[in-house]
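Hi W., the 1,3-dihydroxyacetonephosphate complex you wanted:
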Amino acid sequence: MAAAVSRRPLVSGNWKMHHDHIEALHTVRDLGLRIKPGDVSSLDVTVHPPFTDLRTVQSLIDGERLPLGLGAQHCYYEDRGAFTGEVSPQMLARLGVAYVLVGHSERRQIFDMTDEAVALTLRAVLRHEMTPILCVGETEELRDAGATSSHLEAQVRTALTGLAKEQVGAMVLAYEPIWAIGTGRAATVDDAQDACAFIRSVVAEMAGEPAARALRIQYGGSVKGANAGELVDAPDVDGLLVGGASLDAAGFVDIIRAVSDCYRSSAA
Ligand code: 13P
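Structure:
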């Protein structure tokens, strides 16, 4: 099924608050040894370490020409100023960061990131020519109440309103149902496909069909090597945002290979 679309899948490892810069060095070096050129010929891979690791990981990726994109997990939306403890998009861009997660559910829920802050951060990331990965997803309560679609639509609309069609087409969205994050209970393939197709239909209404067709939508929540292939085989799932299973190089490479095999076999 995946062959019907030309979107290049994106597999991203969100390390959250794991791995100091020494552990990051070992993990990325291990990834570099394990990933073979054929594993990444049909997909993109990014790693999103904590801020304190970024310089170390960037040096390793550049120095050893590793086939990995450098990602961050968050940033503030101002470029500089009296914002103690924050990191600006300009600082990330100067470090060679190419992708930034925006509005991850942990930022929204634990750190009270509002829809308005998500929209401002998305624009700040775009202003610095990095690719935002906009995260959306419903809680278990909303899902049980049958409110998944209305919640996803509201999150997508508040974040994307006013953006140029080209900007929307070039970005990444991640559907991460909150009940599936870190629980070992991934969404079913049908649920992931339905949510991603619905998100794409909202984007089509807002930014037109070409932008909606170009936009990559990842699924995230308890992804591992065993379920990665079937998830990305769904036509509207263009990659995976992986938490726990991305911390260990061997486990992350299993996921990368499962996605690569799926795209290679469907292209054959
Ligand atoms: P897990 O893969 O650990 O469920 O985390 C998903 C996630 O939140 C990635 O951003």
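The radius of gyration is 17 Å.

W.
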